[in-house]
TrEMBL record:
WD repeats lie at residues 78-112. Belongs to the Mediator complex subunit 16 family. It holds the Pfam family Med16_C. The gene is MED16. It comes from Euroglyphus maynei (Mayne's house dust mite). Residues 484-686 form the Mediator of RNA polymerase II transcription subunit 16 central helical bridge domain. SUPFAM superfamilies: Tricorn protease domain 2. One of its GO terms (cellular component) is mediator complex. It is found in: Nucleus. PANTHER family: MEDIATOR OF RNA POLYMERASE II TRANSCRIPTION SUBUNIT 16, THYROID HORMONE RECEPTOR-ASSOCIATED PROTEIN-RELATED. This is Mediator of RNA polymerase II transcription subunit 16.
Length: 883
């Protein structure tokens, strides 16, 4: 287990510190499958003034890639809340947030315009139970679950063999067996509330009692059953009382007048008593652990085992219980009354005590995986336990084996500090960090279980990288990294927590393994077509974590391919035939012509001449409205600039073997070259319709046909073999003398933790809320092509529309959104009202081109870095333990 980073806040006053560490700090969190963390705080993390009220509850969201930028736009109600937030749950898609508090208020929040920094409350999905504390909340399961076939996890086979779609029963289904969104909440008195998001905006609500009568519930956990029901485990806090279990089934039924009504069915399930409460030894007191302080199912999607934590004067005890199928024997009289098949015994589920482990310290936080990834019996699982002595232990589910222990207070000497001045400063920083450390209050595992984040009493974050569950006590292997990346590709989960575990020297090998398994004949054509853009995005993200020359430039190759394919698909959808054609439309006919290689010399001349291609097509089929041409002028300008930029780099790349630029891989990719040629043909057609809305060029001579010249050179590249012909090199040499060629920045730079800077410093990194640490800064040196010009300078370019945004600062401009994973920026408002342009913008409204979330980062959320601030200078290791 490696400690990657810790994010600290401002100093806490001594009287506040004791108040929070004594148990008054009710810090909870929830981690989505997009690696977005929502967590609570008892004070403003970005305010160090004395007016910072401690008795308010704030709610923050933060991308784990930028943990020092928490956004407080999510607030429980519009203003700071006076009550403790007790429930915090993301939905399965990571788009909605369920919130419950001490006073019985239930709220649902969602991102406004898909911005991480801007949230809105869905009032029609909120509810209030006056004074009845909300103690548990869970979203309805969709029934869709992807599992890894354990026997084929290391094989390069088809995805449908490697990943099984384990069709669970959805929690609630509508007509046609379609799942429905909604949530289930339980109060401290056993009141059950179900809220369903019906079709056509209808809302269905229903109430029930968990048991026959309402009772006090102190500890609770809820899990999913395979039949769509919920399994609930409760305790009143007394270890001598039974731990009760219930099943809750929710259905949507038709009643009179053809209306639908929600129904809740609560039934008792097998219960049990803690083993420590059943000790009968006369030499040992039965009151050592009188309090049940934690209840947790091992895996939320497979509740076949549970962990129960007891506390007392001697510390704490952790008990592992398993839900087993036990054969039930019947008396002969009962067998004679009802025919029972002797070959098929009747079984029932019972809780069975497995083992326990004790500690002299109290358990302050407990976490287990939320999802089941591997088809194994029993399911693989980590059990993360935090103690009040500021240690975190990782247990393996099998026999509660302790794998590793991390002590947050442990510090190590910095190898780079030799003289006494630096040593004194180091000890001063260590003393400062030790004073800021506090008791861990909550732990969350990522969806892949390869990382976890811990939150302490002061809402400070501590992030750790874990060993794979199938390879405990080992570093992540190449096969496992490939497996998890492919799983993220198929499931749609965020792969950030996988990227931070892959060392830069292994990126090339992993990309080759992913490409080898994805391309060729191993995956069907429809699978390749469906996931092609996602694979490009994944490989670009991997190479952005590398900063070693030509290897890092490959991220530009995959980004350019992704944008080029997106532009081509959008433009082709605008082309419609005048009459119905059964075989192929004009776009398909153009693609077929472009991809057909010539045989004779006559065919070669027609192949490289764009006007010869136009003759074979009907220009009326490519006619579009002038507004559409104007909307896509900037994108088509990017296509032409990219083609010129790549062609101008050919001489240096051929004469200098070590010379590479971002995007140079397209020159050797026939598919990308043909895509460029198709777009050039469409541009030529549109120039005949309206020459005002086509790409423009600064030509040295008026008689130069730039589009025709680009098309000819690209066509010759398609016909050339692996080695580029000398005639092509000669023509590309004079290209900068014929037309002005712009320098292009197509190498998106990573920001935050998943970047080359992570592997260039000793760990953990010490960060501070609201301050961008200089330790995460790095530079990417892109070679300059001879004869090209940088026309943009320091002006920012909209990554989606290829328009200049001017000298804007995304930290101060509220109309500019920036990405949480790369340095891309984009304007929130579109510059055109064309329906076609809006359709283009809709492709990227949820995510950036790189797959990161959008945010609007105002200056009020960012503190300036001061040279006198110790947090801007700290760079030493608190802990570096490897499992």
């Amino acid at each position: 287990m490696d400690h990657l980073y810790s994010v600290f806040g401002y100093d806490v006053a001594p009287y506040h510190r004791h108040f929070l560490e004594d148990g008054a700090s009710n810090v909870i969190s929830s981690l989505s499958n997009n690696n977005i963390l929502a967590f609570t705080s008892n004070f403003d993390l970005l305010d160090d003034s004395e007016e910072n009220c401690l008795l308010k509850t704030r709610l923050y969201v933060v991308d784990l890639n930028l943990p020092y930028h928490p956004y407080r736009y999510v607030t429980h109600s519009v203003k700071d809340h006076d009550e403790n937030i007790t429930v915090l749950e993301w939905d399965n898609k990571g788009a909605k947030l369920l919130i419950g508090d001490d006073m019985g208020t239930i709220e649902v929040w969602s991102m406004r315009d898909f911005l991480l920094s801007d949230w809105q409350r869905l009032d029609h999905h909120s509810c209030c139970f006056a004074g009845d504390r909300i103690i548990a909340g869970i979203w309805f399961h969709s029934g869709q679950k992807i599992m890894v076939n354990y026997d084929k996890k290391d094989l390069d086979v088809q995805y449908q063999e490697k990943f099984n779609h384990d069709r669970l029963q959805a929690s609630v289904v509508q007509f046609g067996n379609k799942h429905t969104d909604g949530y289930l909440c339980i109060t401290g008195s056993g009141f059950v509330y179900a809220h369903l998001f019906g079709s056509n905006g209808k809302i269905h609500q229903e109430y029930a009692i968990l048991n026959s009568s309402r009772a006090n519930i102190e500890q609770i956990d809820v899990a999913y059953l395979k039949n769509g029901s919920f399994l609930v485990m409760t305790s009143n806090g007394n270890s001598h009382m039974p731990i009760h279990c219930y099943t809750i089934s929710i259905s949507l039924n038709w009643i009179e007048n053809q209306t639908q009504k929600l129904k809740i069915d609560c039934k008792s399930h097998e219960s049990f008593n803690m083993d420590c409460a059943l000790l009968n030894s006369s030499n040992q007191s039965t009151h050592i652990y009188p309090i049940v302080s934690r209840l947790k199912f091992i895996v939320r999607e497979c509740p076949d085992a549970a962990v129960v934590v007891g506390s007392g004067k001697n510390g704490s005890i952790i008990e592992l219980w398993e839900l087993c199928a036990v054969t039930v024997s019947f008396n002969n009289v009962i067998k004679n009354l009802k025919k029972i098949d002797q070959n098929q015994p009747i079984t029932e589920q019972r809780w069975k005590f497995n083992m326990n482990t004790t500690s002299s310290h109290y358990v302050s936080a407990l976490s287990t995986p939320g999802s089941l990834l591997f088809e194994t019996t029993p399911p693989l699982s980590y059990i993360m336990v935090a103690y009040t002595d500021k240690t975190i232990k990782c247990f393996y589910r099998q026999n509660l084996q302790s794998l590793v222990t991390v002590d947050l207070t442990t510090t190590t000497n910095h190898s780079g500090l030799n003289n006494s001045t630096n040593m004194n400063r180091m000890f001063h920083q260590q003393e400062m960090i030790s004073e800021k450390l506090s008791i861990i209050r909550d732990i969350r595992l990522t969806w892949s279980n390869c990382a976890m984040v811990a939150i302490d009493s002061f809402s400070q974050l501590h992030f750790f990288r874990l060993s794979p569950m199938i390879e405990p006590c080992n570093q992540m292997s190449l096969n496992f990294a490939q497996l998890m990346l492919e799983y993220a590709l198929i499931s749609g989960n965020d792969y950030w927590d996988i990227l931070i575990s892959i060392k830069p020297q292994f990126v090339d090998i992993i990309c080759e393994k992913i490409t080898e398994n994805f391309c060729g004949s191993r995956q069907p054509s429809y699978v390749q077509q469906k996931w092609f853009d996602k694979v490009l995005q994944l490989k670009a993200a991997l190479y952005r974590c590398v900063n070693s020359g030509a290897a890092s430039y490959k991220s530009g190759d995959y980004y350019a391919m992704k944008m080029l394919n997106a532009i081509a698909e959008t433009i082709k959808r605008l082309i419609r035939a005048r009459e119905y054609q059964e075989n192929e439309g004009p776009a398909e006919k153009l693609s077929s012509m472009i991809q057909t290689k010539p045989v004779s010399n006559t065919d070669i001349q027609q192949f490289i001449n764009i006007d010869k291609v136009l003759v074979k097509l009907d220009s009326k089929d490519f006619c579009v409205e002038a507004a559409i041409q104007q909307s896509f002028q900037h994108l088509l300008q990017w296509v032409c600039d990219l083609a010129l930029y790549l062609l101008a780099s050919i001489p240096q790349q051929c004469h200098q073997p070590q010379f590479r630029i971002p995007g140079s891989g397209l020159l050797f990719d026939v598919k990308s070259l043909n895509t460029l040629r198709e777009l050039l043909v469409i541009i030529r057609f549109w120039s005949l319709i309206n020459a005002n809305y086509v790409p423009s060029f600064n030509k040295m001579h008026e008689n130069i046909d730039v589009i025709s010249l680009i098309y000819k050179l690209l066509s010759k590249l398609v016909l050339s073999s692996e080695k580029i012909d000398e005639t092509i090199i000669d023509e590309c040499c004079v290209l900068p003398n014929q037309v002005m060629i712009h320098q292009m920045d197509i190498c998106l730079k990573s920001v935050g933790m998943a970047s080359p800077a992570l592997f260039s410093h000793s760990l953990p990194l010490i960060l501070h809320f609201g301050i961008e640490s200089p330790s995460l800064e790095y530079t990417v040196k892109v070679p300059i092509i001879e004869g090209t010009f940088n026309i943009h300078g320091d002006r920012r370019i909209d990554v989606l529309r290829n328009i200049s945004l001017g000298y804007v600062d995304e930290n101060t401009n509220e109309l500019i959104r920036s990405c949480t994973r790369c340095n891309s920026v984009s304007s929130i408002k579109s510059t055109t009202r064309s329906p076609a342009a809006r359709a283009w913008d809709q492709q990227w409204v949820k995510k950036c081109v790189c797959g990161g979330s959008w945010r609007v980062h105002a200056s009020k959320n960012l503190s300036s870095i001061s040279n006198n601030n110790d947090f801007g200078q700290i760079n030493f290791s608190l802990m570096s333990t490897t499992v």
